[in-house]
């Protein structure tokens, strides 16, 4: 009896173990296998058409500019305007201490008066001796002496008159005036400062028209696909073939059209060519000299502007008469129909379809993917 009971206990235990194994196996078989996320090699496609857009950094300056200085040296004693002031043509900007110049003028006038008196005496003497000579009362030598004295004093008067004019001009030059309407863009001196002749005191700019100065690299000049443009002057003549616009960082949604004024034909040390473009004055915006600006240039001109996307042939999925590419879209593979074009020198093929600049396409293993498959970018 005891043996029978032991046998039943062992049998029940074995049956329980077998039941547990079967239950676990059934649960395991009922769970779906996890999807394998395939790593894929990709590339970002770029438009390789003949568009030629560039951005250059420039600076605003007035359409008319002048660095103003005194013609004479002296001591500044009265600055009339500050930086940023609007001035009219002829307005007084600054003066030098005139005392020394008044003294020089007085001295020159005194010397002139003395020379005129001497000349007057010489005239009287010459006239008297001229009459005597005609009467044969004096010798030719005496006549020539007084004639020479008259010529010398006459020359002295002319020299004294020139000195007076120069002294008067110097006195007038102690006043610095505006040569045209404009804005004081800069001032580089202070009252009571001793300055030299020709030393810049003010920078005056006319803002009735504005200019943008920027530099074009030599590579862009060589590669710009504008037809009929063989040199920089041709670029200016054919500016209707391209567009230039100015954009300011504080006004990102506003473009200001530009037209070329002049182009330097000599490169700078950085192998760039200076370009000056004209921008109409803006009544609604405070655009001032020295402001930084970005010049957006479309130098495509009249060349073909067809959008072209070149990809490796390994990115093409052939299915019968149809061709596709796989687009990487938020972690999934998306099949896009495309048309095939020419192959370039780098063995890349041009494709056309519902694609755009900056799209990411899969370039390898395209035959092993399916629509909507989860993929991840292959880490290099």
Structure description:
The protein is α+β, with helices and mostly antiparallel strands and 380 residues long. The protein has 3 domains: 42-49 and 305-377, conserved putative lor/sdh protein from methanococcus maripaludis s2 fold, CATH 2.40.420; 53-63 and 208-298, Beta Barrel (Elongation Factor Tu (Ef-tu), domain 3), CATH 2.40.30.170; 69-184, Orthogonal Bundle (Helix Hairpins). The protein is built from 5 helices and 22 strands. The strands form 5 sheets. Strands 3, 5, 8, 10, 11, 12, 13, 14 and 15 form a 9-stranded antiparallel sheet that branches. Helix 2 (99-134) runs antiparallel to helix 3. The mean pLDDT is 84.
Question: What layout of secondary structure does this protein have?
Answer:
Elements: H1 2-30, E1 38-40, E2 42-44, E3 53-69, E4 74-79, E5 86-87, E6 92-96, H2 99-134, H3 140-172, E7 175-177, E8 182-187, E9 194-195, E10 200-217, H4 218-223, H5 232-237, E11 243-248, E12 251-257, E13 259-263, E14 272-280, E15 292-298, E16 309-312, E17 317-319, E18 322-329, E19 332-343, E20 348-353, E21 360-362, E22 375-377
Parallel strand pairs: 1-22
Antiparallel strand pairs: 2-21, 3-10, 3-15, 4-6, 4-9, 5-8, 6-7, 8-10, 10-14, 11-12, 11-15, 13-14, 16-20, 17-18, 18-19, 19-20
Helix pairs in contact: 2-3
* Largest sheet: number of strands, sense, barrel closure: 9 strands, antiparallel
- Structural class by SSE content: alpha+beta
| Total discrete domains | 3
DSSP strand tally: 22
CATH architecture of the largest domain: Orthogonal Bundle
Mean pLDDT metric: 84
Morphology: elongated
Quote the distance from N terminus to C terminus. Answer: 75 Å
CATH class membership of the largest domain? Mainly Alpha
CATH homologous superfamily descriptor of the largest domain: Helix hairpin bin
Put simply, the count of helices is: 5
List low-confidence stretches. none
| Rg on CA atoms, Å | 46 Å
Helix content: 25-40%
- Series of secondary-structure elements, N-terminal to C-terminal: HEEEEEEHHEEEEHHEEEEEEEEEEEE
Which band does the percent of strand residues land in?
35-45%
């Amino acid at each position: 009896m005891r043996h029978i009971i032991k046998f039943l206990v062992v049998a029940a235990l074995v049956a329980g173990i077998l039941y547990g194994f079967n239950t676990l196996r059934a649960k395991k078989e009922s769970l779906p296998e996890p999807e394998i996320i395939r790593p894929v090699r990709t590339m970002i496609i770029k438009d390789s058409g003949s568009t030629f857009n560039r951005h250059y950094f420039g600076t605003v300056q007035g359409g008319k500019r002048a660095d103003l200085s005194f013609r004479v040296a002296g001591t500044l004693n009265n600055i009339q305007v500050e930086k940023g002031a609007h001035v009219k043509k002829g307005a007084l900007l600054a003066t030098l201490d005139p005392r020394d110049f008044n003294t020089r003028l007085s001295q020159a006038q005194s010397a002139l008066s003395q020379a005129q008196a001497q000349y007057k005496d010489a005239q009287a003497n010459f006239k008297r001796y001229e009459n005597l000579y005609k009467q044969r009362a004096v010798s030719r030598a005496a006549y020539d002496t007084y004639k020479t004295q008259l010529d010398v004093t006459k020359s002295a008067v002319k020299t004294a008159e020139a000195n007076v004019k120069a002294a008067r001009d110097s006195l007038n030059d102690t006043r610095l005036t505006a040569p045209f309407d404009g804005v004081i863009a800069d001032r580089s001196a202070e009252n009571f400062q001793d300055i030299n002749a020709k030393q810049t005191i003010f920078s005056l700019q006319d803002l009735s028209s504005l200019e943008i100065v920027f530099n074009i690299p030599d590579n862009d000049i060589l590669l710009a696909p504008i037809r009929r443009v063989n040199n920089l002057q041709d670029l200016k003549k054919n500016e209707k073939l391209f567009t230039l616009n100015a954009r300011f960082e504080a006004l990102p949604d506003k473009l200001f059209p530009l037209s070329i004024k002049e182009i330097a034909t000599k490169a700078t040390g950085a192998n760039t060519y200076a370009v000056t473009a004209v921008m109409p004055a803006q009544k609604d915006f405070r655009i001032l000299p020295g402001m930084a600006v970005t010049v957006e240039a479309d130098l495509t001109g009249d060349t073909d502007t067809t959008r072209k996307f070149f990809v490796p042939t390994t990115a093409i999925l052939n299915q019968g008469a149809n061709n596709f590419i796989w687009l990487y879209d938020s972690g999934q593979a998306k099949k896009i129909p495309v048309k095939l074009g020419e192959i370039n020198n780098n063995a890349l093929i041009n494709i056309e379809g519902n694609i755009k600049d900056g799209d990411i396409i899969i370039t390898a293993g395209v035959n092993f993917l399916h629509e909507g498959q989860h993929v991840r970018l292959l880490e290099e």
